[in-house]
Amino acid sequence: MGMVVRDEVRKMKKVAPLVAAMSNEARCVALKKIAEKLVEKQSEIFAENQKDLAAAAENNVPDAVVKRLKFNEGKLNDVVAGIDMLINLEDPIGKITLDRELDEGLRLTRITCPIGVIGVIFEARPDALVQISSLCIRSGNCPVLKGGKETTFTNRILFSIIYDAVIEAGFPEGCMLACEQHNEIDELLKCDGLVDLLIPRGSNAFVRYIMDNTHIPVMGHADGVCHIYVDSEADFEKAIPIIIDAKTQYTAACNAVETLLIKRDDKIKNEFIPKLIDALSENNIQLRGTKEVTELVDAYYEKKAADNAGKLDYEAVDENEFKEYLALIVSAKFVDGVDEAIEHINLHGSHHTDAIITEDEAVADRFIRLVDSAGVYQNCSTRFADGFRYGFGAEVGISTSKIHARGPVGLEGLVTYKYKLVGHGQIVGDYASGKSEFHFKDL
Amino acid sequence: MGMVVRDEVRKMKKVAPLVAAMSNEARCVALKKIAEKLVEKQSEIFAENQKDLAAAAENNVPDAVVKRLKFNEGKLNDVVAGIDMLINLEDPIGKITLDRELDEGLRLTRITCPIGVIGVIFEARPDALVQISSLCIRSGNCPVLKGGKETTFTNRILFSIIYDAVIEAGFPEGCMLACEQHNEIDELLKCDGLVDLLIPRGSNAFVRYIMDNTHIPVMGHADGVCHIYVDSEADFEKAIPIIIDAKTQYTAACNAVETLLIKRDDKIKNEFIPKLIDALSENNIQLRGTKEVTELVDAYYEKKAADNAGKLDYEAVDENEFKEYLALIVSAKFVDGVDEAIEHINLHGSHHTDAIITEDEAVADRFIRLVDSAGVYQNCSTRFADGFRYGFGAEVGISTSKIHARGPVGLEGLVTYKYKLVGHGQIVGDYASGKSEFHFKDL
Question: How many whole angstroms separate alpha carbon B354 and alpha carbon B344?
Fold first, then answer.
């Protein structure tokens, strides 16, 4: 396009307050129009998507990426369902979260409002473009969108359909912006003072690069080292499927489990470990355990006198080598109990999502209170950490920061607030001198 | 002290979850003990403060700074009153802000919790040390405190009294930390992964330095360019005292007014401008107006045939030269109406606090909706932007960021949340395959 990003973003900054002031109705009408137009123009969209798929085939793009960049009827139905869900959610804007009379005729109100201009840099997934745009429109924000280059054709038509729908619904010109060139990311990073928030999605290295090269606040997660702690009071019938689901259901996801912490306990060693070994090997999951763990695997196979066929792929590693694999590999070590598990997770985890498997409510409660992560789970898969599964309609990303939004970020993470103070000529001097006094009455 | 900051902060990181799990009662008991001990040991505190005052006199520290570093009975009473107020505020921790059944036996709860380890770097004001510590203890956070060097003696005794009180109340060792050496700030900035949030208070240059030299999230404001827009429907009897209060009540504060925007209107020019000229000159406030403004001042004095005695100090400047003065200087320019005022504020302001003076509710409403600032005021002084005046008990600072807390930051800005998900063995695979389905029931 050859546009100068800063100039376009500066124009967007001017219209952002107008978008912020759009009524709930206008925002919902815009979403309805988007959904209608996407369905209406589906054959054109699919045709553009074919061009991206052809280019991907030519460039030997990996299968996993091709799968994500395909945009078919199934994915169209999903994004349209997501838009319907967003329309039905409560308006996140204009909520009064504090209403206080500071003194007679001096009233303070805190009101939620959009953040403003939000830059989202996301992977090669056309459905992500629709979801992110919809979330921003629903919450009165102006998005600057940069998708993966493998989806250039699909993104271009999707953006143009969405932009037309939004303008038809009465939104101001320039309320959405699409970047296509990779160098435009660096231009965007320099737009501090104009862009209010950046949401990068992608590899650790990419998110770190963004964080290190901008003064704009960044929301995102750099790592997803998720843990499952198997307690002595675990129900093994739950533990095994949860571990397998958390590792295999979407191995490359940030909420996939990477490390198993297991209570050092005879029942566990005698009954759970054999089940775990079989389950891991059946699912082609490699085990990288501490020596204490792998010696049990040795003993298990020795006792079974198993040959190599169907045997677990395992090796002993030092626990300092445990890391985020994003592959069919899981680390494991024994711990003395829930407190050691908590300490390990808080020091070595990434504060994303960590689970305990136990039927002991007191132990579960301790784990949930003391583990310092965005998601603390009992008896379910870490893979549930996701905006759609939380009922948020969609998500713009998952945050492991403790500042602003934490965990899967839906509409609420795209909202800030302002303080409105309405008086009748009050001055601070009168309160400093004692002539007037605050009475702080919540209304 | 010669301590290695990173080692101490690493220990703190380990105890932070224990502090986070302290009961509301335990946190309130700690605050009561702090207040009691401060009163009990007041003569010792005042004696240490005398040492700081003596050093300040020797080093020719400016009067304004000396005034802030003095800690006397009046300031002691204020901080003790602040602690009492904090005790009586609702517990910010453990609030359930979402409670949703995702499916039968799969319950999601969002619970507020402390942020963890918070580094606060603040100016030479002993009362700030007490306020910040109290806010952190009330909200279950572990503070790392670095105060101005001019208050070394006072801060040392205050910290030791507060720390002893907190330990006596059952808090774990190492839950609070004081830095005394300036180089320890740079050590603190490198503690990413251990410190969850930095709150720098001080000059623009200092806050910028912190933001540019750390990967830890920073909450704060770098500028305070606050505006007052005087509308044609302004009540001049309110406008003049508000402008004078906003400029003079505490000139060096970030919420002091810096720029006046005035409706270009005959009534304003004939009636308001003369009142403004007299009020500014009476209060020794220098005016840096656009030519259109200063020509009116010329005309006013010409008509009055005034000599130089008591005459306003004024000069014509280009509006690009308007800035944060933090002194008895105010900028002024005419605008065509509320929309031009809004555009000027959004592009040239610092999103801190901006006020409109008008009796026209529709115009006020437009201003309040479209001005993109933490505080949007009608008919009152910008100086009200303050945690104490908002009824927050105290503040750790004022944020102009739109991420996380915005405006004066009290307890709520020191809080994040976690998602707790309790299941009975649920796995994501079953929802992906359609075997199970979410039903999203808010409880």
Answer: 11
- Give the strands of the sheet with B197-200, arranged side by side: B177-179, B142-146, B117-121, B197-200
DSSP three-state, residue B67 = helix
Query: pLDDT tens digit string along A124-140?
Result: 889 999 999 999 999 99
Interchain pair A375, B421: CB under 8 A? yes
Lowest-pLDDT range of A154-163, B187-196, B200-209, B366-375: B200-209
User: With a CB-CB cutoff of 8 Å, which residues 161-190 of chain B face chain A?
Assistant: none
In chain B, which residues have their Cβ closer than 8 Å to the Cβ of A424? 238, 379-380
Calculate the CA B321 to chain-centre distance. Answer: 26
| A248 touches A328 (CB < 8 A) | yes
pLDDT tens by residue, A78-120: 999 999 999 999 999 999 999 999 999 999 999 999 999 999 9
CB pairs under 8 A between A and B: 239
Contact B249 A197 (CB under 8 A): no
The ipTM is 0.91
Helix locations, A139-253, DSSP H? 152-168, 183-189, 204-212, 236-248
What is the distance in angstroms between the Cα of A302 and the nearest Cα belonging to chain B?
32
C-alpha span between A51 and B251 (Å, rounded):
63
- List of chain A residues whose C-beta atoms are within 8 Å of the C-beta of residue B385: 419
How close A440 gets to chain B, by Cα (Å)? 6
Residue whose entry in the numeric block shows the structure tokens 């572990």: B142
Taking the model in full, what pTM does it have?
0.90
Q: Please give the Cα distance from B191 to A215 (Å, whole number).
A: 19
